[in-house]
Model the fold of this input.
Amino acid sequence: MKIFVTGATGFIGKLLVEYLVARGDDVIALIRKETDKQLFPDHVTFALGDICDEDSLGNAGAGCDYLFHLAGMITFDPSQRNDLIRVNGRGTETILTFAEKWGVKRSVVVSSACTSGLSFSCTELMTEDSEPDKDTVKRNPYMESKVMQEKAAFSASKNQDVVVVNPTTVYGPGDSSLNSGSLIKKLYTSSLVPVPPGGSNVIDVADVVRGILAAADHGMSGKKYILGNENLQFASIFSAIENVTGCHPIKVPLPHWMKQPMGWAAWCVGKLTDSRFMTPQIIEDLFAYKYYSNLRAVQELSWTPEFSFVESVSRAWGFYQSHHLI
Done:
């Protein structure tokens, strides 16, 4: 197969490229700078360009069998809303327009499970048919941009073959930017940590990559598939990380009434530190249950996750240690 990959330098994208090369596919990786070439294995072809710059794309993906679209921007800072919409929303519309022009047989768009919304009950699992609360979308520019991304994908599916996948919170080796790894680092370096009452669905990066490939093979155009594994309360997530890393901070359970004052504090800290992760929306998420069902993906994609959360954290921890990231 001849395959075009955007977002190839990212956490999931790099591993996807490795899988594709290993099985003998001809891979074209879209990169934004020449120095990105050193991140990839041999036998990868490069296209220098940007999904937000139509002139840079040209005929880079002409004749490809598949497009895997993973390029995107991750931040929860409301001041970055315009850039999020430009990259995640309009950038997806642009690359799919080019996919149709290039004659790509199938595109797989990697979105996020957050587009199915959040639950505030540990007994409620969100599915592909769930919709996010409109007020939450307004407060969360990242979620808003991902909702726009999916609208672009489903609109494009009227004229071409497009499948959407929705990973939950991804752990595992290769997380060089410490996305999910920021929690592992926080626990390892802190003597005292607050434990929020909510929870999250977690999955290993290798299982996500296998799910993306399964969607390319078995997914139905115009549909989306949640790629998730275990639904765990934050107390359980923290305990698993502690057991793997050997850290033992004092844990203080947070009562629900702390959500609003912590949100204000996060806003202040985020402004002072320019942190893309310290926002009121992140705090709200900690008091919610990001619990999702993977039943559709399991039934329709012939896919099941292989790694437990403990195994995923262990794999991630080995990577962070070997690369001196934590």
